[in-house]
Amino acid sequence: MRISDKRIDNGKSFDFGLISENYTKYRDIYPQDFYDKIIARNLCVNGQTVLDLGTGTGVLPRNMYQYGAKWIGLDISENQIYEAKALSKMNGMEIEYITASAEQIDFPNKSFDVITACQCFGYFDHEKISIKLAKMLKDNGKLLILYMAWLPFEDKVAEKSEELVLKYNPNWTGLGETMHSICIPDCMYEYFDLSYHEEYKLNVPFTRESWNGRMKTCRGIGASLSAEEIKDWEKEHLLLLENIASEKFEILHYGALTELTLKKL
After folding, report:
1. Which of 8, 86, 176, 242 is 20 to 30 A distant from 170 in Cα terms?
2. What is the model's pTM?
3. Of 140, 233, 123, which Cα lies nearest the Cα of 191?
4. pLDDT for 187-223, tens place per residue?
5. Residue 79 and residue 17 in contact, taking contact as beta carbons nearer than 8 Å
6. pLDDT confidence tier of residue 1, bands split at 50, 70 and 90
7. Tell me: the pLDDT tens digits for 111-122?
8. Contact 16, 223 (CB under 8 A)
């Protein structure tokens, strides 16, 4: 399903479902430290029921499954949910997946201990979802927002890769990240209090192939461009990597975690 939002890429449409197979291969890259930060907050663990918004191919539920929570994953893309179901079944994981947007969901009141949104919170209509999420959470429930991004001003390979994305997609607004806390719209604070946030640096290992795949599955390339444009970009990006990167390398990223606690309604 193609999405167009004037806040994102100057309204240029995108669809992560177009790259679901490659998404499975190249976007499951969060280091263990990323998950350890969640566990340290005693979230998404045994005895808790968790709803994961924008689950994609189920990266968060599948990687956190071992910690014992009951998971439901939700995504607007049928292709993403298809891959999530297949991967979970292949690994013997009992995770429920639903194809729907965050704005469409309507679970019974007090259904969840935790609601997570990893790498997707900025895509939502926050005015619409704020009250829905609040009602679906149990008393003292948590909304956990997660994010990880490369740091182009501190990493040359990331910087040059971004420049090449812009060459093929000048509308792309996903560039130029710096380390900062996750932006929470004011409307969310009507129902939630900020209880914790943390930002930290991460070195994420790649090969030329896997970094090319990671960049190809970003919104600015695989989810937006034509097949011919993607092919041309990929060829040029691989040549770039041969000139500036060894076969194996690390890309400097930062991770961010923001925990919101439900107010007493």
Report:
1. 242
2. 0.95
3. 140
4. 999 999 999 999 999 999 999 999 999 999 999 999 9
5. yes
6. low
7. 999 999 999 999
8. yes
23 pLDDT band, cuts 50/70/90, is: confident
Which string of DSSP letters, residue by residue, matches the chain? Answer: --B--TTSGGG--B-GGGGHHHHHHHS----HHHHHHHHHTT-SBTT-EEEEET-TTTHHHHHHGGGB-EEEEEES-HHHHHHHHHHHHHTT---EEEE--TTT--PPTT-EEEEEEES-GGGS-HHHHHHHHHHHEEEEEEEEEEEEEE-TTT-HHHHHHHHHHHHH-TT-------S-PPP--GGGGGTEEEEEEEEEEEEEEEEHHHHHHHHHTSTTTTTTS-HHHHHHHHHHHHHHHHHH--SEEEEEEEEEEEEEEE---
- Crossing angle of helices 156-168 and 208-216, in 10° steps, is 40
Cα 264 to its chain centre, rounded Å, is 29
Distance (Å, whole) CA 162 – CA 213: 14
Question: Residue 236 corresponds to which tokens in the numbers above?
Answer: 């040029």
Q: At which residue do the structure tokens 């914790």 appear? A: 196
Question: Tens of pLDDT along 44-91?
Answer: 999 999 999 999 999 999 999 999 999 999 999 999 999 999 999 999
Which amino acid makes up residue 30?
Y
CA 129 to mean position of chain CA atoms: 18
Extract the tokens encoding 210.
């896997």
Judge contact between 183 and 173, C-beta under 8 A. Answer: no
